[in-house]
């Protein structure tokens, strides 16, 4: 991903995806997880976790058998019925509300991070490189007080988090 980020007349890009970038971004990941935990730690997600796990297991079981196989057609049919029931449970109002709350808290944690000018100035100075030179990137807190900086920060953070699945092979 070679996205170029323009800000205050300069062009930047994320460092190469390697251990160094991950090491430099650790404060972002740590702060995100701490804030997410802070906002969701009192929420009981047991029902949601169980419902998601049941759907996942039933889908895996169905993938292992085929409806055309005469020996397994009854099993397939029974598992299909259980999957439909499990998906209905997963889509219940209660579990949708819990999932929405979790998503809202993820967004709130990220919003708290990207609006922390001091934190973001340090982080961006670590994870960005100049597009046109090899000089050290220095972004200061006052640079990020400008309203136009929000879009700059959002694009960088979005691109960084898009890289994360690539690290785990997904």
Give short descriptive properties of this protein.
3-stranded antiparallel sheet; mainly alpha; 170 residues; 65% helix; 6 helices
Descriptive account of the structure:
The protein has a 3-stranded antiparallel β-sheet with strand order 1-2-3. The protein contains 6 helices and 3 strands, in the order ββαααααβα. With 170 residues, the chain is mostly helical. Helix 1 (19-40) packs across helix 4 (93-114). It has a domain at 5-43 and 94-167.
What's the short version?
This protein is mainly α and 170 residues long. It is built from 6 helices and 3 strands.
Q: Unreliable segments (pLDDT under 50, ≥5 consecutive)?
A: none
Distance between the termini: 16 Å
Order of strands, main sheet, comes to 1-2-3
Q: Which structural class fits the helix and strand makeup? A: mainly alpha
Shape: elongated
In helices, the fraction of residues equals 55-70%
Helix tally? 6
Order of helices and strands: EEHHHHHEH
Chain-averaged pLDDT: 89
Number of DSSP E strands: 3
| Percentage of residues in DSSP E strands | 5-15%
Our Rg estimate from Cα atoms comes to 22 Å
Largest β sheet strand count, sense and barrel closure? 3 strands, antiparallel
Question: Topology, please?
Answer:
Elements (H helix, E strand, L loop, with lengths): L4 E3 L2 E5 L4 H22 L5 H19 L8 H18 L2 H22 L2 H11 E3 L18 H19 L3
Antiparallel strand pairs: 1-2, 2-3
């Amino acid at each position: 991903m070679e996205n170029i980020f323009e800000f205050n007349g300069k062009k930047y890009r994320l460092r190469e995806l390697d251990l160094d970038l991950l090491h430099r971004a650790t404060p972002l990941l740590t702060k995100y997880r701490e804030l997410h935990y802070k906002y969701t730690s009192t929420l009981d997600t047991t029902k949601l976790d169980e419902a998601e796990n049941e759907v996942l297991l039933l889908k895996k079981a169905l993938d292992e058998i085929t409806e055309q196989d005469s020996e397994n057609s009854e099993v397939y049919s029974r598992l299909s019925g259980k999957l439909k029931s499990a998906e209905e449970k997963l889509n219940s109002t209660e579990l949708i509300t819990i999932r929405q709350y979790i998503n809202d808290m993820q967004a709130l944690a990220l919003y708290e991070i990207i609006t922390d000018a001091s934190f973001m100035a340090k982080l961006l100075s670590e994870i960005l490189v100049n597009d046109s030179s090899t000089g050290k990137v220095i972004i200061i807190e006052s640079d990020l007080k400008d309203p136009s900086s929000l879009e700059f920060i959002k694009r960088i953070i979005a691109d960084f988090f898009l890289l994360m699945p690539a690290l785990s092979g997904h």
